[in-house]
Amino acid sequence: MLLANLSLTNVSANQQYQGVLERVLFSTLTTLPCCLFLCINGIMLFTLRSKALFCETSRYILLYNLLFADTVQMALSQLLYIIAACRITLTYPVCGFLTMLANLTTVVSPVTLVVMSLERYVAVCYPLRHASIITITNTGVAIIVIWAIGSLNILTRVLLLLEFPFEALDSLQMKDFCSEIAMSGGSMSDDYDKAFTCALFISASVAITCSYIGVIVAARSASTDKASARKACNTLLLHLVQLGLSLSSTICNPLLTALARVLTRIVFVRIHNVFYVCIFLFPRCLSSLIYGIRDQSIRPVLIYYLCCRLKYSYRTAILDNSFCY
């Protein structure tokens, strides 16, 4: 009997040790690349504020808005991941604030992609009117509208949380880890979330696709700059890819909720970690890599700051650059 108890104790200790080791391993594998991408995004944001050209051009202002939203979302998600990995439970108000802020930036990213696509459409199809339509003032108004749409979504979610049974709780301290699933307000909140997500991404997909078709049609015109139209088409295709990746990270929650009901906790955590890196973390760092490499104005300045302001030849970088926005 004693030997059996000792054997069970050893097995339990072994499982606990493996669990701790696995958590440390997964946390390291996710935190290190996230810190790297946060650093790159931070340098990219600084780059977009380092030159007057970037501060006075609408497409760079919109790019800054997109990068800012992605960076905030990635930082918040990694913070929640580390809190969960350390098995720290938060209070419902704190968790609600963090998840709502993450939801706000989730909406801002695809809507910003739509505005960026429309800007490229105007630049190619209406080149003579581009300067009068796409002004700094109009860009600022567009960014305010983008954040207003996200804020209205958050306000609606907060109102739907009123059906959450807070009065039935013994304490505001959460018993599980902070996540959007844990803060779900009920069936009405789930239905709203699905409807809003579908409406957002369908309308965004239609807008970007129509812009792409419009640019292709304009490219066949003799009066259109073929090179500019081709580059705009490539940019719009990248916007569609980014939108698809954003959609995949958004629909990840319902899939994880379904998996949580049929899988053991340890298997679910492993799958959640893989999803987090491949579906959520990776798309958030694409913007800085894509635009930092493709844009001939950003690339030399970005490399200059990435190299910690070491002596770098701008002229060589621009000559070697084979990409353009």
UniProtKB/TrEMBL annotation:
**Family matches, as CDD domains:** 7tm_classA_rhodopsin-like
Name the UniProt key words of this record, in alphabetical order: Membrane, Transmembrane, Transmembrane helix
Q: What is the residue range of the signal peptide feature? A: none
Q: Which residues form the G-protein coupled receptors family 1 profile domain?
A: 40-291
Which parts of the chain span the membrane according to its record?
24-48, 60-84, 90-118, 130-155, 194-219, 240-262, 274-293
For this UniProt entry, what's an example GO CC term? membrane
| PANTHER family for this protein | G_PROTEIN_RECEP_F1_2 DOMAIN-CONTAINING PROTEIN (PTHR26451), ODORANT RECEPTOR-RELATED (PTHR26451:SF866)
Q: What is this protein called?
A: Olfactory receptor 2AK2-like
The organism of origin for this protein: Haplochromis burtoni (Burton's mouthbrooder)
